[in-house]
Amino acid sequence: MNGLTIAGAVLAVIAALIHVYIFVLESVRWTAPATRKVFGVRTAEDAELMRPLAFNQGFYNLFLALGALVGIVLIVTGGVVRAGYGVAIFALSCMTLAAVVLVSSNPRMLRAALLQGVAPLAGIVLLALGAVALTTG
How far is residue 9 from each of residues 39, 42, 75, 126, measured CA to CA in Å? Predict the structure, then answer.
């Protein structure tokens, strides 16, 4: 495993941890006052109304995190390295595109979009370069 892949794997794990945290907020702690504040939900009643949607969305974030982690495990263990790159890059691409959708639908969400989109985007670049180096070197 080359240095580009290691750096990309670290960023993929960071991205996965961010998305697990988002899962916890959306699916476990949605109605907590601190979580409502993070998402700009004004009242407990509004949070209850939105709860099924947030719960579902949280699981999307969890599944993206798991996809990135499975890809990295496949790369690191050396079992199915090429498949690992593909799985990790796919999951990271979904995270990045979700951040693009977030900021394009609400420009005030730029900070949140950067939080959830920069690490996966950088991970994509480094993993792709690492995969190229692996096949050419």
Answer: 29, 38, 9, 8
Per-residue pLDDT of the chain (137 residues; tens, 9 = 90+): 899 999 999 999 999 999 999 999 999 999 999 999 999 999 999 999 999 999 999 999 999 999 999 999 999 998 788 899 999 999 999 999 999 999 999 999 999 999 999 999 999 999 999 999 988 86
Q: Is the pTM of this model over 0.90?
A: yes
Q: Do the beta carbons of residue 67 and residue 91 sit within 8 Å? A: yes
Range of the domain at 58: 3-136
- Overall domain count for the chain: 1
